Amino acid sequence: MSTGIHHVTGITRRVQANVDFYAGFLGLRLVKRTGGYEDAEQLHLFYGDALGSPGSIVTFLVWEDGAPGRVGHGQVAEIALAVPPDSIGDWLTRAMTARIPVEGPSREFGETVLRLKDPDGVIIKLVGADLPAAAPLPDPIAPTRLRGVTLFTENPAGTRDFIRQFGYNDAGTAGTVQRMVSDTDVIDIRDATGFFPGIPGTGILDHVAFRAPDVDSVRKMRLALKYTTDATNVHDRKYFMSLYVREPAGILLEYATDAPGFTVDEAAEHLGGTLFVPPHDAARADDLRVILPQFAMPGEERTPMRDLHFVHRFHRPEDPDGSTIVLLHGTGGNEADLMPLAHGLAPRATLLGVRGRSTEEGINRWFRRFDAVTYDQDDIRAEAEAFAAFLDDATRAYGLDRDRLTLLGYSNGANLIGAVLQLHPQGAGRAILLRGIQVLSDPPALSPDALAGRPVLMLNGARDPFGRMAPALESALRAGGADLESDLLNAGHELSQQDIEAARAWLL
Fold first, then answer.
1. Which CATH architecture has domain 5-282?
2. Range(s) for CATH 3.10.180.10 in the chain?
3. Do residues 2 and 212 make contact, with C-beta atoms less than 8 angstroms apart?
4. Distance between CA atoms of residues 255 and 241, nearest Å
5. Choosing a second label site near 53 at 20 to 30 A (CA), which of 200, 354, 445, 462?
6. Alpha-carbon span 211 to 56, nearest angstrom
7. Are the C-beta atoms of 61 and 44 separated by less than 8 Å?
8. Is the pLDDT of residue 1 over 70?
9. Which residues of 419-445 are buried (b: 16+ CB within 10 A; e: fewer)?
10. Taking the model in full, what pTM does it have?
11. How far apart are CA 112 and CA 108, in angstroms?
């Protein structure tokens, strides 16, 4: 019977740094990349031994530039990976050379341990333990499998009793930590009474999954927990069948089958090379492959990301033509929202999605508003200046061709572009404004040549309740000499196929 840990899942805010650490520094194999099964717009990466064997798997959901969480009770707090016992000195040297935070070596329950932190601050323990890999990796000192996890709980007795259902038995205590063992690994239960509760977010371990022999075992566990916990229904995750449950202290656990495994849709020699999307999102596959963040494997050519004033993301097509479309989302959107639309307009263009810095009740915007049609004028001017500077910095930092820049914004994003064109007309690039309006209450009087020759497309909806404020922006841009094309579509504030067709024709 299979016992022990199947996988551990965390959340990262920087996909490239995550890949560089787990595949590069640790030497694990990236065995699968896919859109998330709960949210296909979240990239999900799986690392493990050469085949991604159950018991070796560490996975990460990618919340690119997402809000950090907080480690506390009710969470999985640490991952322990087994490495050859005589490799601890080599790992200490490797960590110090790579400038990775490291503590130790120390002794825990009779084993030698190094404590590292990954780029998100997640604690990774390397434990000297003679636990052979099911499918060894090329690096002779690479981690062989999961040694265990540490759980932070305010109810250690309840957590311990619940964990026994997954094949674990008591194995002694050390201070506030009680160890439980299976046939292959350990669970360390730490009494975190008095700690802060954990908060979900990046840099947090979301859950630990235990091994189930088969689907029937998962279903039996579901029935056994039916009246005692908030266990979910059985979920088909393609690579395994799963049941999720929270134990008495609120820690999220999963019960997952060993089969069918990661070779169900990829040959063993090609594992991790293809981006997959969940079957139920197959109709969105092309859009998702544009939305999901890109990264380079260790040793591959990459474009270094710069720490600029706005959160941003690139999508680089396989055959770029040298043009770049800069994307500004609408209220409540993010830097990836408009990427599928822009890719459809110009498949060979590099896409630079940017996230607005103003927030309103937790949603992203480009500037503050007092009500639906009253805007903070100081904030508009400050953010317009900041964005104009960002464009200059991004152009220099990434070597973008100023003469082939197109600014594309929708709604609130289009409004900021309109403000930038008026307040900083010397900037480069043509513009597409989808449902853009005049948001400046006292716009500057532009000289007739301030925007001379600047191509601008404005597309507004005949039924758009904000449309009455669009002519003022049109007049201001024309007065500044912009080469403005404006069209009133049979639409509301929402985007339509007419927008796509008109924008594509204009770009061509």
1. Roll (3.10)
2. 5-282
3. yes
4. 8
5. 200
6. 11
7. yes
8. no
9. bbbbbebebebbbbbbbbbbbbeebee
10. 0.94
11. 7
Look up residue 310 and give its two tokens. Answer: 């706005």
Please write the tens of the pLDDT for every residue from 49-70.
Answer: 999 999 999 999 999 999 999 9
DSSP secondary structure of 53-81: -TTSEEEEEE-TTPPB-B--BSEEEEEEE
Do strands 350-354 and 324-328 pair parallel, antiparallel, or not at all (unpaired)?
A: parallel
- CA distances for 229 relative to 155, 244, 288, 437, angstroms: 15, 10, 35, 52
Amino acid 432 reads I
- Among left, alpha and beta (phi > 0; psi -120 to 50; other), residue 97 is alpha
Q: Which two tokens stand for residue 129?
A: 């333990």
Report the interhelical angle of 470-479 vs 412-423 (nearest 10°): 30
Distances, alpha carbon 254 to alpha carbons 28, 207, 246, in Å: 22, 7, 9
Residues 340 and 286: their CA atoms lie apart, in Å, by 8
Is 387's pLDDT higher than 90?
yes
What backbone torsions phi and psi does residue 238 show, to the nearest 5 degrees?
A: 70, -50
The CATH number of 308-507 is 3.40.50.1820
Residue type, 369: R
Q: For every residue of 97-153, which 3-state class applies, written as one string?
A: HCCCCEEEEEEECCEEEEEEECCCCCEEEEEECCCCCCCCCCCCCCCCEEEEEEEEE
* pLDDT at res. 136: 97
> What are the Cα distances from residue 38, in Å, to 14, 142, 208, 237, 279?
20, 31, 17, 10, 12
Torsion sign, CA atoms 490, 496, 501, 506: positive
pLDDT at 122: 97
Question: What tokens were used for 60?
Answer: 């990460």
